[in-house]
Design goal:
single chain, 217 residues, mainly beta, four-stranded antiparallel beta sheet, binds N-[(3-hydroxypyridin-2-yl)carbonyl]glycine, binds fe (iii) ion
Amino acid sequence: MTAPLFDDPAQPPRAPQELEPGAMVLPGFAHDQAALLLQAVAAIATRAPMRHLITPGGLRMSVAMTNCGNLGWVSDRTGYRYAAVDPESGHPWPLMPACFEDLAREAAAAAGYPGFTPDACLINRYAIGSRLSLHQDRDERDLAHPIVSVSLGLPASFLWGGRQRTAKVRRVALLHGDVMVWGGPARLHFHGVQRLARGNHPLTGPCRINLTFRKAD
Ligand code: MD6
Ligand code: FE
């Protein structure tokens, strides 16, 4: 039997880490609420099912996505944008649960961004082998607001680059319950997620769920 490499109570707690000015990892910040968050994700996905979006270049994303909140991030052949309506159903996105909004607000405040109020939550589901190539998050109207990102389920190797696509990339392990907050001078840094390694998490099975909270409008 192999011991899990994640979410192991025998491991010492990891301290908050500033990746660089503006970007913080808060290890385990969402750990105690993880089961509740995942229940809410399941409820959202019954009304706005996870789907593989098509990039403007015509590629099908390996990560499956849905949204909740006033706005949702979508992509198709015409580009990337935030939309108030789910293009699949024609209905507004499911409401953002209070437990999502509270967590995002508290994490942002803990990382030095008081007063953050998300209006959009992008929900990403990574199956084994899914990946997210290096990108910048720049579709939000006001880039002064930070982004709060919550990792649930299988661990991921997060790729943390620089202001230029060609900058050196660091790998950061993001485990179940970890929260990342970034903004300020780091807001436009390139980032991505390495191909998800095989595994099985007690709460999510063979996948990783990521919630990213934004103030898009
Ligand atoms: C992910 N996250 O962790 C993908 N973007 O699955 C992102 O692309 C991301 O985590 C902006 C801010 C935080 C993030
Ligand atoms: Fe991103």
